[in-house]
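Long-time lurker, first post. I've been practising inverse folding by hand and with some scripts of my own, and I keep getting stuck on stretches where the structure tokens seem ambiguous. Below is the full token string for one chain I'm working on. Before anyone asks, I'm not after the true native sequence, just a reasonable design that respects the backbone. If someone could post their per-position residues I'd love to compare against what I wrote down in my notebook.
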């Protein structure tokens, strides 16, 4: 969005431009946010700026599950009350949040950081699948739950992982079909996700 032709101060137009690059933020929303920040106390703007810098400077990947964390291992992997015999595989760190909200799953996670997508040039070796196999060979895991999104890429990734894990003799399940095809876990409601977890099916 080019604002050079508008009578707007350059710092504001730059902020609107950057906000407009965020997912789900259109030009009008970006403009409203920019002017809200302009009118807010300087302290609030500093807090926001520090929070944004903080996620880039203070976060890392958990060496076990590859979730985003500020300490290693992350709070989930470090929780002694979790069921270490179950690992739920998700595409992105954001997918863990809705599953945790259901309070129906108390196992561990593994984050792939993407899905297999030939059209986008993403191959299996670009994902954290090798780390998953290493975990499965060294831990007493009895069930792997495939919780990739119910779309073509998610299904293809699940099938690929299933073929790799099957020879290990570990039970492999998939979230039930309560989730609409083409949807994302991130946007699923708690009841739908709870039922999908409880009704997970053998693969």
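-- Answer (accepted) --
I ran through it position by position. Result:
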């Amino acid at each position: 969005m080019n604002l050079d032709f508008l009578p707007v101060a350059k710092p504001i137009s730059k902020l609107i431009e950057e906000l407009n690059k965020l997912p789900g933020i259109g030009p009008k929303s970006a403009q409203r946010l920019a002017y809200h920040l302009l009118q807010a106390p300087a302290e609030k703007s500093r807090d926001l700026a520090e929070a944004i810098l903080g996620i880039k400077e203070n976060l890392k990947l958990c060496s076990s599950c590859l979730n985003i964390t500020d300490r290693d291992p992350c709070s989930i992997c470090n929780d002694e009350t979790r069921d270490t015999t179950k690992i739920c595989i998700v595409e992105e760190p954001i997918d863990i949040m809705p599953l945790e909200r259901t309070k129906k799953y108390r196992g561990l996670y593994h984050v792939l950081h993407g899905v297999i997508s030939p059209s986008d040039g993403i191959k299996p070796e670009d994902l954290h699948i090798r780390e998953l196999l290493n975990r499965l060979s060294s831990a007493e895991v009895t069930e792997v739950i495939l919780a990739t999104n119910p779309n073509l890429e998610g299904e293809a990734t699940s099938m690929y992982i299933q073929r790799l894990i099957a020879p290990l003799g570990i039970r492999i399940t998939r979230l039930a079909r309560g989730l609409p095809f083409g949807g994302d876990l991130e946007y699923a409601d708690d009841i739908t996700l709870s039922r999908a977890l409880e009704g997970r099916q053998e693969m």
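A couple of notes from the structure itself: Helices lie at 10-20, 27-39, 42-57, 96-102, 129-138, 152-165, 190-198. The radius of gyration is 20 Å. Happy to go over any region you disagree with.
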